[in-house]
UniProtKB/TrEMBL annotation:
<dbReference type="GO" id="GO:0043546">
    <property type="term" value="F:molybdopterin cofactor binding"/>
</dbReference>
<dbReference type="Pfam" id="PF00174">
    <property type="entry name" value="Oxidored_molyb"/>
</dbReference>
<keyword id="KW-0520">NAD</keyword>
<dbReference type="GO" id="GO:0006790">
    <property type="term" value="P:sulfur compound metabolic process"/>
</dbReference>
<protein>
    <recommendedName>
        <fullName>Sulfite oxidase</fullName>
        <ecNumber>1.8.3.1</ecNumber>
    </recommendedName>
</protein>
<dbReference type="Pfam" id="PF03404">
    <property type="entry name" value="Mo-co_dimer"/>
</dbReference>
<dbReference type="InterPro" id="IPR036374">
    <property type="entry name" value="OxRdtase_Mopterin-bd_sf"/>
</dbReference>
<feature type="domain" description="Moybdenum cofactor oxidoreductase dimerisation">
    <location>
        <begin position="253"/>
        <end position="381"/>
    </location>
</feature>
<dbReference type="GO" id="GO:0005739">
    <property type="term" value="C:mitochondrion"/>
</dbReference>
<comment type="pathway">
    <text>Sulfur metabolism.</text>
</comment>
<dbReference type="GO" id="GO:0008482">
    <property type="term" value="F:sulfite oxidase activity"/>
</dbReference>
<keyword id="KW-0560">Oxidoreductase</keyword>
<dbReference type="InterPro" id="IPR005066">
    <property type="entry name" value="MoCF_OxRdtse_dimer"/>
</dbReference>
<keyword id="KW-0500">Molybdenum</keyword>
<dbReference type="GO" id="GO:0020037">
    <property type="term" value="F:heme binding"/>
</dbReference>
<dbReference type="InterPro" id="IPR014756">
    <property type="entry name" value="Ig_E-set"/>
</dbReference>
<keyword id="KW-0479">Metal-binding</keyword>
Length: 383
């Protein structure tokens, strides 16, 4: 089956699919630390986990519309300046289960934990491409390359047994401030097999699908990648589009993710005592837009209070890029009086004043992506 050599995983993960392995932590694990421990970081795969046995022979090739074709070994990549970037990776399918309750959608079900916040260590893609003769901040190569395609070594059925792939615009790839990494470390340790050993792409602020794991080659191409996950998946359609009238070519591949938040200290229907309770969760926005505010309500959204926000534990969050991790989530908390039969709601506002949509019905889409609607939790009081 190809699944005989899967790595060991933490038993506390909630498994949403075994083969390929898709799993997320319980909600409470997400808010217990600002940086998500590797064991509790969600795992999203489309095929068996590849195994690289001889790291000295592992290399990434750079091909396509570029004058210098190159083959880079791990030693070459480690020779480049190393950057540590704290960035939240979020699957576009996060909160899909809740969207499916409105009207069935296709795809692996996820609760609110198909995301995690890690410190990724590696070389900047902009530096790697410079080795191949492509200057910083280029939007086209001398041979007409406008997109950078990442091809993996894994095999998935959506690609008819071929490798997983995706692309980003050359402009973003060669912009040092975009912080796109070829990462060989996660939280200060060698990145493990589940998360892309020996080398993965990390595209901060963009849906997880573009952060290709187990990188095999980089191609400079004229049009964006024509692979399944760019062209036939991870696109946002209006609620009127269904499987019998879908035209994939009418929409662009999703890149940045919108403003998102979730409460992580409670389950969807929870039983707690009346009185004070601590409500905590995460909020994050794509494209490097920080979080401006998180509002919490205990009466279903009639009245709101602003939650306290922080990044590194106990350091108050400042919406100032110079002082904040701009690609990373903020955690929020509020200790509130919980009335009888409360309905607790959270919504976040990002630095561009984008606000999460109220109702999942309004953003329903057949693939069940980007459910960023307000997170609501119904409380049943115990005595
Ligand atoms: N890269 C490869 N090669 N194969 C994959 O199946 N899944 C993508 C992306 N990169 C995938 C991949 C998706 S959809 C997501 S959300 C992230 O990896 C998940 O990364 P993680 O498993 O490290 O959390
Ligand atoms: Mo994903």
């Amino acid at each position: 089956s190809g699944y005989a050599e899967e790595p060991p995983r933490h038993p506390a993960l909630r498994i949403n699919s075994k083969e390929p392995f898709n799993a997320e932590p319980h909600r409470s694990a997400l808010v217990s630390s600002y940086v998500t421990p590797v064991d509790f970081f969600y795992k999203r795969n489309h095929g068996p986990i590849p195994k690289v046995d001889d790291i000295s022979r592992y290399s990434v090739s750079i091909n396509g519309l570029v004058s210098n074709h190159m083959q880079l070994f791990m030693a070459d990549i480690r020779m480049l300046p190393k950057y540590n970037v704290t960035a939240t990776l979020q699957c576009a399918g996060n909160k899909r289960t809740a969207m499916s309750k409105v009207r069935k959608v296709r795809g692996v079900g996820w609760d609110v934990s198909a995301l995690g916040n890690a410190t990724w260590g590696g070389a900047k893609l902009a530096d790697v491409l410079e080795l191949a003769g492509i200057p910083k901040l280029s939007s086209v190569t001398s041979l007409g390359g406008k997109h950078v395609e990442f091809v993996s070594v894994d095999r998935c059925k959506e690609e008819k047994g071929g490798p997983y792939k995706a692309s980003i615009p050359l402009k973003q790839a060669t912009d040092p401030d975009a912080d796109v990494l070829l990462a060989y470390e996660m939280n200060g340790e060698t990145i493990n097999r589940d998360h892309g050993y020996p080398l993965r792409v990390v595209v901060p602020g963009v849906i997880g699908a573009r952060s290709v794991k187990w990188l095999d080659s980089i191609n400079l191409i004229e049009e964006e990648c024509q692979g399944f996950f760019m062209q036939k998946d991870y696109k946002m359609f209006p609620p009127t589009v269904d499987w019998d009238n879908i035209d994939w070519s009418t929409r662009r591949p999703q890149m940045d993710f919108p403003v998102q938040s979730a409460i992580c200290t409670l389950e969807d229907v929870d039983v707690i005592k009346e009185g004070k309770a601590r409500i905590a969760g995460y909020a994050v926005s794509g494209g490097g837009r920080g979080i401006e505010r998180v509002d919490v309500s205990v009466d279903g959204g009639k009245t709101w209070v602003e939650a306290h926000r922080y990044q590194k534990s106990n350091v108050p969050y400042v919406s100032d890029r110079a002082q904040s991790d701009k690609w990373a989530w903020v955690l929020f908390e509020a200790t509130l009086d919980i009335p009888a039969n409360a309905e607790i709601v959270a919504k976040a506002v990002d630095s561009a004043a984008n606000i999460q949509p109220e109702k999942v019905e309004d953003i329903w889409n057949l693939r069940g992506i980007l459910n960023t609607s307000w997170h609501r939790i119904k409380i049943q009081n115990s005595l």
